[in-house]
Amino acid sequence: MGQTHTIRMRLSRQPVEIVVGSGHLNQLGSRLRRMALGTHPILLSNPNILRRHGKAIQKALRRVGGPVATLTVADTEQSKSLPSLSRLLSALAKLDGPGKRPFLVLAGGGVVGDLGGVAAGLYKRGIPYVQLPTTLLAQVDSAIGGKTAVDLPQGKNLVGLIVQPRLIFVESKFLETLPERQFRSGLAEVAKGGIIRDAALFKALEKSSTQQLRKGADRLSWALYRAMRVKAAVVEQDEFETKGIRTILNLGHTFGHALETASGYRRAYTHGEAVAVGIRVAADMSKSLGLISACSADRIRSLLRHLGLPVTFRGVRLADITRAMSHDKKWFTGRNRWVLPTGIGRCTVKENIPAHVITKAIRGAWEG
Amino acid sequence: MGQTHTIRMRLSRQPVEIVVGSGHLNQLGSRLRRMALGTHPILLSNPNILRRHGKAIQKALRRVGGPVATLTVADTEQSKSLPSLSRLLSALAKLDGPGKRPFLVLAGGGVVGDLGGVAAGLYKRGIPYVQLPTTLLAQVDSAIGGKTAVDLPQGKNLVGLIVQPRLIFVESKFLETLPERQFRSGLAEVAKGGIIRDAALFKALEKSSTQQLRKGADRLSWALYRAMRVKAAVVEQDEFETKGIRTILNLGHTFGHALETASGYRRAYTHGEAVAVGIRVAADMSKSLGLISACSADRIRSLLRHLGLPVTFRGVRLADITRAMSHDKKWFTGRNRWVLPTGIGRCTVKENIPAHVITKAIRGAWEG
Fold this sequence. Notes:
2 copies of one chain form a homodimer.
Chain A: E1 5-9, E2 16-21, H1 28-35, E3 40-45, H2 47-62, E4 69-72, H3 82-95, E5 102-108, H4 110-122, E6 129-133, H5 136-142, E7 147-152, E8 155-162, E9 167-171, H6 180-197, H7 199-206, H8 210-215, H9 217-237, H10 253-262, H11 271-288, H12 294-306, H13 318-326, E10 337-343, E11 346-351, H14 355-365
Parallel strand pairs in A: 2-9, 3-4, 3-5, 5-6, 6-9
Antiparallel strand pairs in A: 1-2, 7-8, 10-11
Helix pairs in contact in A: 1-2, 3-4, 5-6, 5-9, 6-7, 6-9, 6-11, 10-11, 10-13, 11-12, 11-14
């Protein structure tokens, strides 16, 4: 077992513990027992994770004392639906009973974390839950902050709530079996953390190759920890996304979401890849507006390339990108709002940026 | 228009405005416009309320500026279900669109308030909502405190959240068409407020007949206001029901729920009637334990009778009451927990009360 990093988030109702490490899954049970979250752990996961890690996770959960129940959902967007939420809530009610205090352990990526988080927030008006994220993207991003949601036919993530887990337990060894492309995509969110708030993380990433991060457990744990620390600090300042502070976590996302939408169902770009192109576009806009030095903007673009991420895009019409951006919920009526890097580890939020600045930056990243 | 009373609850995220009055429904629109809750009011109500008050409510809501959408649900417990919640969430998504800021106005009793509250809490991770309660029980009790829920086949109120409305607008004229028995049942919760925390309310109720309350708009508004003020103050101190303070709102409910359950589907007792018998039982227990004077316990029982509420029960086996109580969630493992009046306007919470004290008090209220 390598070094373990911990973060304690102070939030409105209860603190959230974050533990990051490599090969420390056997510590989960004793930690849960100390935290006394409940008597009956209910593991929610997907078939792939259960096949690879189910026994180890169940063994850890048995340390809590009571029996361990396991529920499975398919790892597809279809699982993030109201029918699937209804089934999960009924399953919780069936596992519950007099004298029991059930709590949920969500082992998976964004699908399990989002669906399970809504269920934990709603069952009996809220039972404790633990995030045990198994993808890089979930570890550095979606497992932190309490945003949970399922989809409606009318749109993604339209039904949900902000409800914090009691513990976020990050085991970097889960990433060993992650496909290379998914791993690199997750690094876009790690890099984002460095760009917006952590120059030391940025510099460490400049000095590491993707291979070194994949193989070097301690190096990876440290990078995860630093990126999570950035997100945790931002969420602490703006838990319910009412103060505009959480906006900076959207660096690269205004363009990134538009690229994902415009490239449609072909899935030409993963979320992380689209965000990487979006970060490059934001850096170029910032340079045009004189908010960042050419040198820093170049370093940002170079880091993304160094991590094996795209900084250009193709196969999409510019008009489709523009249309998709105008539907983004972060584009308020008539205004656009962008997170722009102002240096390494610094950023700002700007509104009403002239259209020609946006267009020029997007065109600059476009390969036709 | 008579006198209007206002209460401002200070809670964790945003304050809640409470306005109580008679014949002031025409003030709702301008108040909502001032509060700037959104651009598109969506009225959720039941057919009965819409037939009687729909036009007046819609007229008030048109003052907000945008068009007023109206959604209807049946006023039955079946509406408090996940399928009905799904339909409501989809309806909200269909009414929503770019640039719109919808908010919900819930005009009805507990069913509309509970179902609509869950939907408001979940749609887009929370949109503002207004409680416009139309029954006495909803006005003095369920509309305040943010507890919302729907049922599962496994049990009532198993799925929900604590999410506060932005405004609770109480129009006592809605009660004019309320059936006599429902009105009297609601008075049990008004009396409860006086017993646990407001001696002045208690004394005012002693001096009013049910008829005077039904016909005297100002007298009724004042009593509603005082009872709501008690609940509002308790909720302010314990918003998420984590500190045990909200427990005192359960005076009469441990026995009351058991009586409702034991008398089953025959609906021999309304919620308020069952609570009234429960308050009498609690007062007798308190007297046995030497926590309240015989004189005060008698005054409590007399007030309930004076309001036309039962203080005895029949047609139920005592064993069924005991069994129902042992399933109550407020009965922790091996312990029982009771709210006991200690005077007029005062109460306490006691655990581990000897079984013979409980049995004696219940037997005393039993007519076989």
